[in-house]
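re the bet — no i am not wrong, look at it urself. input seq straight from the record:
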Amino acid sequence: DVESHVSENPSRDMKVALAEYAPGRKVFIDGTTYISEAVRWNRSYTNTQIKHCVNHHTWTTEHDKCPICGEEPIEWDHFGNSIEMITPTGFYPSKDTSRITTKDAMDLKIGTELIGVGEWISANNHRLYATRTNLDSQNPEILYYNKGYGKGYYVCKSCGYALPVPTTRGNQTENELISNLMYHTDKKGNLYHNGRDKLCKANINAAIDNGFFKRVVLGGTIQTDYCEIALFDRVSHQLRFSEENLMIGTTLGLMLCRKFAALSGFDRGEIDFIVRNQDNNVSICIYDTAKGGSGYSKRLNNPALIEYLFDEIRQDMSTYTSVHQIIDRQTVQYAELVDIFKTLNRLDKELVSRQLV
């Protein structure tokens, strides 16, 4: 049935669940369209706080300061110095499908971070890249979080009814926005909303002031395996983070995942990547999507394999004329971050450097 389909899928693939089944999303099952309208979570646990420091480290523990570098948390992602996160155990659909047609398409913002990993240890490096895996650190985790349109969600504490915070609210106060966004009016003029068939009526001021999580994100962490590839501009000098180098890292990440999966014979969905900004340096983190890790990504901690993949990517990309030869339906969100020409230049520079060793 629809409820089990929507609420059980999150345990199988958190990132897909957060993107495809979060409140506001349309769900198509057996020829019928539903809309996800409420979130379920374990109410015996307090919500997680996500923090971020000036050196781009992210953590979800109770530490007041960054456990890696000791810096204070800073404002991040248009939230405050700490982002409150609900970890969903399921999502619930509406039963009234007639309202689906009034819903616009949602451009949800999904964030991904590698946490629990310390600084790179400086070392003399004769290549234009360096690698490390979770053999070098303890308890690495991948953090996934859904930011709605970018400012989080409003979530009813009683029934779980939830909607993304709009990007603008005009002249409305936040309480007025929540009232207009989250409540309907019945025939008697009473305000209500309905999450998982639980009717929540409003004494409006008390309900809004005390009954909602405001600007929370939906997400969670999985412990996994990873291999991080730091890019270098010249020997022993890491490539600085910039918009141009973010595009190079993204293009390489997409191609590395594709070529590595094809070479190794596992499904592309078993691994994924993020481009990291650590101390203003660029790195590509390839990680296993399986909870606990499957060991695939750690195989990349091998110079011979990395260089073979670089050569394969360079050969393929030299024939490409469009970003559509790199992206597919699952990776279309990266379309504006692909740059074939600059990535080829980077790979050519890496090959020249390698031949001089």
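see?? The mean pLDDT is 85. told u. also The radius of gyration is 22 Å. so pay up
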